[in-house]
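Forwarding these from the shared drive since the link keeps breaking.
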Amino acid sequence: MDKLASLRAFVKVVDSGSFAEAGRQLRLSRSAISKYIADLEESLGVQLLNRTTRHASPTENGQQYYERALVILGEIEAADQAVTQSQSAPRGLLRVNAPMSFGTMRLGPVLADFMTKYPELQLQLVLSDDLLDPVQDGFDVTLRIAELESSSLIARKIMPVERSICASPDYLRRHGTPSHPQDLRMHVSLTYGFLLTGNQWKLTGKDGVHWIQPAWSLCVNNAEVLRDVAIKGRGLALLPTFIAEDALKRKELRPVLEKYAAPPLALYAVYPPTRHLSVKVRLFIDFLVERFGREGGA
């Protein structure tokens, strides 16, 4: 039995939740993956995976074995990198997940420059506003604009993401301009309701902190949609600055309650906890930190 190949196959199955997907990522047939796992379970005398026709998940023993296997494979990768990284550029596949709006509006030029600097890397970018699991979905690194919950994942802050409350001039003519956070209770709001605070807005000014539960007419997980609906005069929206800035410059939106600040979100790079961060992931995150730091954030 090729123990190392079996470990890699097992880890991929746990990460992806599928024999077929593990085979695709390792460029092996499903039957080859199944044989690696069967050989591994036979040698250990325990069942490592619960199987259905479409999904595979670790047993209790399998989860413990998976965590140790990650360490072992990380050590092997680190040993390989220690003797090769000084001799060659990073190579292989780097799988990245990012939010849809941030990806389409900000990532393109950055990725192009990263690819120029590291031409031997293959970069696969998946844009999604769903909160995908980096481990289960097989991503090397996930970018998130959020207030992060504590988890078993490791997160590195890349930059703050400022926010402001905006509305169209037409909406403000029809409904008036709020001068205090409490006035928001009398307005229609457009909300991004997938944060830890839910649909509540937290605003801080000289008179303290105000928590507002706005009366909302739209709740959506994409800020570009919120911006476009706000431009059409359908309500107030609390938007990331990088989403709203062009509409503000064109006077399609106006900022309100500028003496009050919403707590900034942040762009994080999230990745699974391994003892050694792979060179390609470290270089990618360092590149984002340097680039967005130079540009002054979002």
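-- next protein --
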Amino acid sequence: MTQFLISMWFALARLPFFAYRLISSSISMLLAMLLFALARERRMVALTNLSLCFPDSSIFQRIRWAMAHIYFYLRTFLDRAWLWSGNQKVVRDRVRIENPEGLAILDSASPTIFLAPHFLGLDAAWSRLCLEIDMVTMYSNQKNPVLNSLILQGRSKFGDQLLLSRQQGVRPLLAAMKKGRPLYYLPDMDFGERDSVFVDFFGVKAATVTAVARLSRLLQAQVVPVTTKYSKGRYSIHIHAPLPNFPLDDDAESTQLMNHHIESWVKDNIPQYLWLHKRFKTRPAGESRIY
């Protein structure tokens, strides 16, 4: 059944752009309404996150954000079929780098960390950047082996990319960066207390990995944020200037500074940030569970 659904998914992506956009948008809209009504647990996760991060917003605004988020989540998920199909022309046409001159930062002698917060277009940014440069990134294994294999193959489709599982540790990652590969790193998920500190995210304590600060200091690497927006079937990538004066002397302070930057980008694109993730699942000692 999984293989059949994947075949249908990739067949949909081969349609001409107008037909694909119409059908995939309709499917996403219908499923978004059904999931908002039926998927109670995930709906409550999104609404809880939005309530914590935007306490001054109305419940009606948060519902609108949550419904839009689920739609964008499904819509960008469907787009992974054409991102992973291997058609470079399609990817170049539908994923635009707003400021390609930003890639000139790679000419620096310093190693580079591409800081990619969890906006829903992050896979589009990865695939598009893979057409320009060879990178290294880390991934978490999926429970479904067919889906896990599909993701790895899709993300390796262009160039000579190095994908490392979190179980492989940091040594091969450091070796790749020392040889000149930029690291494409997703910094804002709750992986528990290990290698994390509790710092504010929109005023709420969130377990946040300190890897960006530690790697930046260890390798004297520049941290270059990359953000992505989806609109009308296409994506735009913005390559920001390197974070100034980063890292600070203290890992916790550096990680807090990183979160403040992420907050500023989220405010500009609230529905397309990953609100379905239990970002505040791990709590400081003595605090009650949120979800």
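The chain has a mean pLDDT of 94. Strands lie at 95-97, 112-115, 136-139, 162-165, 183-185, 196-201, 204-209, 222-231, 234-239.

- D.
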